[in-house]
Write a structure and sequence with these properties.
Helices cover about 15% and strands about 40% of the residues. By secondary structure, the protein is mainly β. A hairpin with a 5-residue loop joins strand 5 (about 75-85) and strand 6.
Length: about 170
Amino acid sequence: MSFNKITIVGYLGRDPELRYTPQGTAVCNFSVATTEKRKSVGGGMDEHTIWFRITAWGRQAELAAEYLAKGKQVYVEGRLRREEYTDREGIQRTSLEVNASDIQFLGQRGDTAERGAEKTEGSGQVDDEVDEGVGSKSISSGSGKKQGSKSASRKDAVNIEEDEVPF
């Protein structure tokens, strides 16, 4: 058995680009940067940034293109692939590419986009999570924690019909 899965929490380096295949499938490409601080030889702290090229497909791609923008924080899960190419100057380069299986929007609700979602009664929490069904992954702009089957019961608690969900 083999396993290829990566989890990234970082910031978008550019606005997402949405396009469609000839068959009509949505494809969204964007880049995400992660930064870590390392102690340098001289004792100071150096920042080390790694860039990932992300590809999302289907409804997930459309939502990413609609709600993500340069500088927004995002959680991405997917399969990692390393691509080698030669740049314009003839230098051999390496690119880290991720085929996204799960994307969640992080940060404050106002940071993600202006949307008219319902607030749950009594808790003051915003119901942001949408479970799109079998084979699809949830996309959230809330805390970044998956709620799984709890999202359906939370929708029932605030009487949100499927037609009213802005996704």
